[in-house]
Write a structure and sequence with these properties.
There is one protein chain. By secondary structure, this protein is an alpha+beta fold. It contains six helices and four strands; from the N terminus they run αβαβαββααα. The protein has a four-stranded mixed beta sheet, with helices on one face.
């Protein structure tokens, strides 16, 4: 009986309290606006864990293995079992969890879902430009330099 209890307590410790973990770009004003809306809808229930990939401490291994560059290209979320989802599926699942599933319900239809993902892909490709930011290659280069500087302590502020 004690072995069963140990197995149960171990699984309880590793089970997240959230139902979905949203990986978002905290430097994107439109993304932050959506996250603020979703946080209000979550109302402190902890159904959605919000993870800012722009934070220099972002660790892909702790978030479904989704690296920064991949997460910057398309929206991703991680489910409690470690499965990752992306594109419109992320919005559909989050809105369902928060009781607003009707907003994205039509995207469950194969043709509509395919069109929605195609449109989202266009948006994702243009997101950085539309929000007045540099291209992804420049953002990646700047981030890499900044992180190397912080880790190796090679850089000095003037």
């Amino acid at each position: 009986m004690s072995a069963a209890k140990t197995e149960f307590s171990e699984s309880v410790e590793v089970e997240p309290s959230w139902q979905i973990e949203l990986l978002y770009d905290g430097e994107c004003p439109l993304c932050v606006r959506e996250v603020n809306f979703l946080q209000k809808r979550d109302a402190g229930r902890g159904l959605v864990a919000f993870v800012d990939i722009a934070d220099d401490r972002y660790n892909p291994e702790a978030h479904g293995g989704v690296d920064y560059e991949t997460a910057m290209g398309r929206i991703h979320a991680v489910l409690p079992d470690g499965t990752t989802v992306n594109n419109v599926e992320v919005f559909r699942r989050i809105y369902e969890i928060l009781g607003m599933g009707w907003i994205y319900a039509v995207t469950k239809l194969p043709v509509i879902g395919a069109i929605a993902n195609w449109l989202y892909g266009i948006w994702a490709d243009w997101r950085l430009r539309l929000t007045g930011r540099q291209d992804l290659a420049t953002i990646m280069s700047d981030r890499t330099k900044r992180l190397e500087c912080d880790v190796e302590g090679r850089c000095r502020s003037n």
